[in-house]
Amino acid sequence: MEAILKAIRNGRLKAEIVCVISNRKDAYALERARQNGIEAIFIDPKGKDPVQYDMEIASELEKRKVDLVLLIGYNKYLSPQFINKFRNRIMNIHPSLLPAFPGWDMNVHKAVLEYGVKVTGCTLHFVDEKMDAGPIIIQKVVEVKEDDTEETLKRRVQEAEGEALVEGIELFQEGRLLIDGRKVRILPSRE
């Protein structure tokens, strides 16, 4: 989120983060949102079935007329009902070059290091009904260094994630993303 905030502050992105929603009350993203004057919303998933929970989030997003939903560090499956409401308007950032190394956060970095690959990176993709399988928008490559730990690798991948998110938001705003089956085509600039 920090890369997006910076791009908004420096004028690269003409966007507004209208709210940050989390299923974890202690999520740092909520605190970062508050520090930046952004509405921070905790929605407790306890006692709710997944569809009910997702529709509660959808209601909050619709009230605020959200154009684009970004999943950053969000570790819950989205219901088909939620995906259909925001089809082709939900982007997820993943800490590997999908389809390699699906999964979550440090588990991904650990698997990358254990496998011994020479490069990893991040993938920005549209969300569909399958986990980490939606049409790929942008991928950024990050070299895996001999002395990398999960933490050092994560820091460099997160830098690439910030770049991919800002670039993806720009392309979305400019109407330059065309989903063609499994592929996302990036249309030329109108300038």
Concise overview:
This protein has 191 residues and is an alpha/beta fold. The protein contains 6 helices and 8 strands.
Any overview of this molecule?
This protein has 191 residues and is an alpha/beta fold. Helices cover 37% and strands 21% of the residues. The protein has six helices and eight strands. It has a four-stranded mixed beta sheet, covered by helices on one side. The chain has a two-stranded parallel sheet with strand order 1-2. The chain has a two-stranded antiparallel sheet with strand order 7-8. The longest helix has 24 residues. The protein is globular.
Shape: globular
The CATH topology corresponds to Rossmann fold
Give the SSE string.
HEHEHEHEHEEHEE
Oligomeric status: single chain
Rg (CA only): 17 Å
Distance between the termini: 28 Å
Tally of contiguous helical segments: 6
What are the low-pLDDT stretches, counting only 5+ consecutive residues below 50? none
CATH second-level architecture: 3-Layer(aba) Sandwich
Largest sheet: 4 strands, mixed
| Major sheet: arrangement of strands | 3-4-5-6
Looking at CATH, the homologous superfamily is: Formyl transferase, N-terminal domain
Helix content: 25-40%
Kindly state the mean pLDDT as a whole number?
A: 96
Q: Strand percentage, roughly?
A: 15-25%
Q: Which key terms come to mind for this protein?
A:
alpha/beta, Rossmann fold, 37% helix, 21% strand
List the topology elements.
Blueprint: H1 2-9, E1 19-22, H2 28-35, E2 39-42, H3 50-63, E3 69-71, H4 80-85, E4 90-94, H5 105-115, E5 119-126, E6 136-143, H6 150-173, E7 177-180, E8 183-186
Parallel strand pairs: 1-2, 3-4
Antiparallel strand pairs: 4-5, 5-6, 7-8
